[in-house]
Amino acid sequence: MGNYSVIADVSASLVKLLRENMTPDPIPQPEMIGLASPVDKGDFYLSLYLYNVRESGNNRQTHMIARGTNEIQFPPMVVDLSYLVTVQSPAELSSRALDEHRILGRAMQVLYDHSVLRGSMTVGTLAEQDEEVRIVMDPFKGESIMNMWNFSETPYRLSVAYTVGPVHIDSTRIKTTKRVSETDFRIQG
Length: 189
Fold this sequence. Notes:
Blueprint lengths: L5 H17 L10 E3 L10 E10 L9 E2 L4 E3 L3 E11 L5 H21 L2 E2 L6 H5 L4 E5 L4 H7 L10 E11 L4 E3 L13
Parallel strand pairs: 1-2
Antiparallel strand pairs: 2-5, 3-4, 4-9, 5-8, 6-7, 7-8
């Protein structure tokens, strides 16, 4: 479980994973992989863009969490994060498409081979709480991803979508309780 920064920690963990596994080949420098909108102009060969956050109904928790002997905490909110992974090669026009296909293929391979982020692969709250999250490619058809690509005046760039979760965001609501200290059973006959 994590505090409100856990979404940023998931994003940073994904960037860390891709940087460690995609440089120097096919991307020459780690700084060329980062978080950005697909329409941002910059030096990124590969960008991750968080485009949707939704509650994970399948992983919703309803039980209170004991915090010491006199407090209970409300359960965490559980969300899934949707990312668009977009490739933008600076190669010459004659080789750009093949270069982008290589980069995307390697990114997909890395995310598949590391489909569960945990331990040393994580940063921040995820690492502190020893949390793990799953990475799953979204089964969009070509038409669906094109419809999602609604950035004004920007031509489509080669992209693939992933869902990452479950991500737990701790509740700040805490309730004071009293423990049962003695019981009285009487049997009448």
